[in-house]
Amino acid sequence: MLEARDLTCVRAERVVFAGLGFRLSAGEALLVTGPNGSGKSSLLRLLAGLLPRAAGQVLWHGTAIDDDLAAYRTGVHYLGHLDAAKPALTVAQNLAFWAGLHGVAAERVMPALASFGLDGLASLPARFLSAGQRRRLALARLAAIPASLWLLDEPTIALDRENVRASEAAIARHRAQGGLAVVSSNVAIALPDAHGLDLADFAGRGIAWPDDEAVP
Amino acid sequence: MNGFWLVVGRDLALARRQGGESGLALLFFVLGTVLFPLGIGPETQMLARAGAGLLWIMALLAVLLSLERLFQTDFEDGSLDLLIMAPLAASLTVLAKCLAHWLATGLPMVVTAPLLAIMLAMDPAGLGALTLAMLLATPTLSLIGAIGAALTVGARRGGVLLTLLVLPLYIPVLIFGAGAVEASVAGPGAKGHFMILGALLLMAATLAPPAAAAALRHALE
User: Fold this and answer.
1) What is the domain count for chain B?
2) Does pLDDT of A211 surpass 50?
3) Stated pTM of the model
4) Tell me, what's the ipTM?
């Protein structure tokens, strides 16, 4: 169970969002929407523990994630804007590295690539991949490495229609197995029964520290 | 521990495939050293006296040249996010990347240094000391440099800043590295120098990884 309470995010001394909260149980998904710059990526990085919170708490199964950040992160997939593909390594080597780092058997690599139609490109250096193919390689990481919480930042960007459906299916499978997903997207993505979170509702009001407040 | 060697292996594979960077540092080391006799004249006596110092300075600069990319590519392509989030502790990831960096750039310089020393007419009595001192000191250069590389990751023109940050920290290595060669040629032996270089290596190996890891976490914020 993932719960966020009263989250506030401050970037460059500006409040991006404030007072944000939600609660997700096993198998549920949260669709984060909002205009550009409303903090969708910041929210996901914050939930991944990569970004410090200005205020509020994130609870994973009832305990604050900061209590044991390393343990929390082993159960989390973070898919950011960047695809973390090394151009000099082949498609399979790229995925095998991350799988190995997470202690996942090498046999899981090829089926994961196949689920996003990359099995034919496995031995191709990643430098030859198109933007959409690189995105699929990043998504294949989700299929290869088990994790109960998926934080996906615009997962379907650059994907063709067929692979948008493949990624929707992957998220549905993950949820069916009791996984949680927080997905930010401004393009249509099918997430049945997903909770919605519009960051425009939590927009900050200007600068973080009003002049009349003494803040060091 | 498996993850540690995976990171070492990946960085070595990247260094080998992308060819350039680590090879360039070695080439810079060799070419720069070769320029000195052309610049200050070929008198063997002068070269022999200055040789050890020249080699050490060139080694420092060559390592610096290769440091900028240590975390930069991982930062730019998003790998750093995933490396920090991976089950392997961040300081061990840093240590693994330093080890790979040393194997790709430091070790080839250790092997080349005695040849360059002969070219600089260094007393053969100092060659062993030079090699051993380099072997002890080049990993320290990678480790200390990792702190600077982590602090400047994501900064524009990070390379210049990196140089200014790291060069002063290299001074002890330079003093005792060049001193080791001097001492073994002059006679008294360089045992003390080696011990200090070893101590510097141990200190860097324990202190630099957590410091660089903290800097990387901060860079991702």
Assistant:
1) 1
2) no
3) 0.90
4) 0.88
